[in-house]
Structures are given as C-alpha cells and as structure tokens.
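Re: duplicated header lines in exported structure tokens

Our pipeline writes sequence and tokens for each protein into one text file. With two proteins the header for the second block appears twice in some exports. Here is an export where it did not happen, for reference. First protein block:
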Amino acid sequence: MTNIAVTTWSLEQTAPTDLLPATAPEGDVRIVRSEVPSPEFSRFLYASVGGDIRWTDRLGWTYARWREHLERPGVETWVAYDRGTPAGYVELESQDDGVVEIVYFGLIQNFRGRRIGGHLLSYGTARAWDLADRWPGLATTKRVWLHTCSKDGEHAMDNYQRRGFRLFDTKVEEEAEVPNPGPWPGAYPA
C-alpha cells in the first residue's frame, strides 16, 4: 500500500453575519432535520456521500457507537432531499464554549453540480449558528468551524469560502492510500 500527501484546511466563521448564503436551487429541494436518531440512516448518508471521496473513519463503527453519537445533545443531521430522494447532508456537533463543528457535509455523487451543495451548506451553517435555540443548556454559538481536505470534491474549498468561511489552519500529513469504499464495494471507480 502506498502513502499519499493529504492537505487538510480548517475554516471558520466567528459571527452569524459572516454567512454569505447561496441562492436556493430550482426545483423541489427541501432540507429537513433528521430528528429521530437512526444509526441505519446516518450510516447510509455517511457511506453514500463519502464513498467516492474515501470517508472511512466511521465505517467500522458499531450500531451502539452510532446511536451513542447521534443521541448526544447538540448533534444534528440536516438532510437535503431532491424530489423526495436524499441528496446529501450536513452533520453539526456542539463543542465546548459555544463552538459548533460542521463535522460532515456533502452530496451523493449524482446530486453534485446542481447548486444543491451551496444551499445545503448555507442552511446547515445557519442551523449551526442557532443550535442553542433547539438545545436548552447549550451555550450560544460563538464560532462555527469545519475542515476539508485534498481528498474532498474539487469545489469544496471554493464553496466554503463563498459561504463566508475563512481559513485558519493548514496541515499536510502522509496517509495510507485506500480504495474508494463506495456505499458498497466497487460502486465508484478509484
């Protein structure tokens, strides 16, 4: 197995006014919070969105681990639907002192390039800013951050910056190159 250099960029917003919303796409695109913790559904979203960009860190999670994560206060999953079909999602996670991380964000491969991503990121970021309104006891959001890497889609960084996120850290690390896991083996070419 060979190693590859992976660049990881961390970006942030430090005020709700930093958000520069995208225009909503045409058609029947809706964004809905997945309010019932469902390990099956969350794993489906994770594997389907990340399958062609080598998301592998959660593939080994057990059902119990998924449930434990999803039931934590301040963890939310917002799903974009195109004409009733899941197109992508954004996962938010409350951290200490009013910090919210956009832990995962992306679209299933067949829904990319249709202006859904900018809209979903805008909506998810707005929900990160008002997260404490839905979770009594959480601190008011003071900062929203995320990271992206050179394995992510070619338009990821541009989308984050157009939504008002600013770069605050860059790291380059060697990683073992792994095949695209796909939502099932062989679903996407390497």
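Second protein block, exported in the same file:
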Amino acid sequence: MSSTTTTTPAAAPAGPPAPAPAKATVADEGRIGLRANLRHIGALARRNMLQIKKDPESMFDVLLMPVIFILLFVYVFGGSVGASLGGNRQEYVNYLVPGLMAMMGLNIAMAVGTGVNDDFRKGVMDRFRTMPIARSSVLIAKIVVELGRLMVAMFILLVMGFVVGMELHGSVFGLLAAVALSAVFGAAIMWIFILLGLSMKTAQAVQGTAMLVLMPLQFGSSIFVPTQTMPGWLQAFTDYNPLSNLADAARALMQGGPVGDSVWWTLAWAAGITLVMAPLAVAKFRKKA
C-alpha cells in the first residue's frame, strides 16, 4: 500500500510588501529647467511651422488681410476723413497705417484661439499632455509662431502703406519701435484668445465670441478715425481702450510726434494682460478634459 506525501509550500519571508509597479508620470513643469524648456518650445514651434508648410492656405489671412484693409479704408474713407484731418487722402494714409498695425495683432490672436480649439478637437493637445514637457511650452510655441505670422502681416501692411502714399516723418528706429510695441501687445492679447479657445467647445464658438469682443474694441478706438467727433460717452470709452493707446503710440513713433504716456500705458496693458491671462490659460490647459 503506497502512501501519498503532501508538500506544504514554504511561507514567504516577513518584511515590507513589494512596491506596486510605478505608473508612468508626466514630468512636473517645475522640474524642467530653463534650457530644456527653451528646447521644447523650439521643437514645438518647428512642428507648428511645418504644419503651416503643409497647409499654405493657413497664410491667406496674413497675406491678404493687410492688402484688403489698406485698399478698403484708404479709397472708401480716405477722402472724407483725410479732409477732416486737414489734408487729403495721403494724410489719412499716414493716420491709418499705424492704427492698422494695432489691429493686425487682434486678428492674428483670434486665429490662435481657433487653432488651439481645433488642435484639442483633433487630439493633438492630448498627445502633448502625455509628454514630459512643460505645459506652458506648448502654448508659448503657439504664440512664437503666430508672432512670426504677425511680422509677415506687418511687413505687407507697411509695404502697401508706402505704395499708396504713406510718408515716414519719423526715424527708422521709431518705425521699428512701433512694430515691436504692436508685437508685444499682440502677444499679450493672444493669451486671452488661447484661454477662450480652451474654454469654448467649438472653433465656431471661439470665432463668434471673439468678434463680439473685437468689433467694439476696434471701432470704439482711434484706429480708423480721430475720436474728437465722437459722442462724449464714446470718447470716454476710447480713452481707456488699450487699442487707442497702441494706435496713438505707433503714430507718434512713426511720424515723429510727442509720444506722451501712450507707450507706457500700452506696455502696462500688455504686462497686466499677460500676468493675469497666461497663468489662467496654462491652468486651463492642464485641466481641460
């Protein structure tokens, strides 16, 4: 008669439990150094520029918008507004072009908001959020590329201005300072539209809301016409409108007039908008579902 031997498995040695497999985590923004952050911004900006290269039609607004605005306003309103300025159509060109420089940044900024919204809809931003990069680098790279588009629009605007008779009474340095001031303010405004693009569900909603904001700001300012003939309540609005400050500062820099406080007010507006909107946009980017 055979006997069956039962083997009892040895007990595991006592001790702390084995740690669970660590989940892959995305590097925190605070752990990424400045050099790495700049490298990430450069790589993402290059990716955005390659997207433009694959879709040249995305540059149509930059290439055509300055031409259309110059021809439309100069030859429709130039005669009457120029006369009110004490001159002719050429006088209005000198008045209009610096104002349009202020407006270019707003229109480019609106495109940033719709682009960010579209990237989220396509899942591009979700892929970026799984990568070990600073969250702000994704948004800053967007702004860097859009500033490049803005410079192209500014160049075409100035060329068209000189073609239709604009005269530069100031210095070349003043012209470059006006372009730089417009770019600084445009970059600040882009943070507002990035936050709008992250908050709205569709690109159409972003564009519609942006137009509701842009129309009063643009036409309730000194961009197109002097504000002296406006009603008193509207003049009070234009006095606090940052676009009026930017347009007046650009005119003074380009035409050699007294700058006054317009430059400082424009820089103050740009700094305040960036300090408030940039952190809100980055926080929204992290939490957006």
